[in-house]
Amino acid sequence: MATLQALLFDVDGTLADTERDGHRPAFNMAFKAAGLDWQWGESLYGELLAVTGGKERIRYYLEKFNTTFVKPDHFDAFVRELHASKTRFYTQLMAEGKIPLRTGVERLINEARAEGMRMAIVTTTTPENVTALLKSTLGAESESWFEVIAAGDIVPAKKPAPDIYLWALEQMNLTAADAVAFEDSLNGIKSSAAAGLKTIITINDYTKEDDFSQAQLVLDHMGNEAELFNVLSGDSAGHTFLNLELVKKVHAA
């Protein structure tokens, strides 16, 4: 059995509730700034999350939910500019400290650092969004804690394709047997499982009904000593919050 060498973290919904409290408001701010009357409510946004990637999500919205919109000339540039505006609004929200990390995330990251565990970010969001979240929640130096930041369009096929995980593992000179992934969504578990990674899920309001049968452990959050997790699927081996010892047990099982 391979020894656990690395933790691979998804970002949106896993490290923080950025979809509900960051990306959705930022999209709406960008729409307003562009003079568009689009408004993505929480329910609609939950449906849009079927598609990963912000530019892809805008296209999906127009294809399925706003079919009467007359696409402008140079539509690809229109989408790119709209998404770039959204990213600026998102980083502004991050800089204002609007979005905290989810329960137990900072504790687990600090525990991993203390033990010399290698870490990486593996996400479909942009590198700018990753940097903004890390700096606003963990401090200016925190980006350097992660050996690899696999983000955005670094691979052509986004989650649920396994490409982003495979790329991260290759950069770290690791195999899937050497790491554990942390995810929160159906597209996330499809991606990590297809890459051959054992995966721990922390659900959120948008993903609580998703099929996580491919995951080794499904929790409502990572938990802390003062705020214990609920185990939705899998074996927590008697633990009441997710620490590195439990992660190692999940990896070894």
Automatic annotation (TrEMBL):
InterPro entries: CbbY-like, HAD-like_sf, HAD-SF_hydro_IA, HAD_sf, PGP-like_dom2
Pfam families membership: Hydrolase (PF00702)
Signal peptide: none
GO molecular function terms noted in the UniProt entry: hydrolase activity
CDD domains assigned: HAD_CbbY-like
Protein name: Xylulose-1,5-bisphosphate phosphatase CbbY, converts this Rubisco inhibiting byproduct to xylulose-5P
Originating species: hydrothermal vent metagenome
Lineage: unclassified sequences, metagenomes, ecological metagenomes
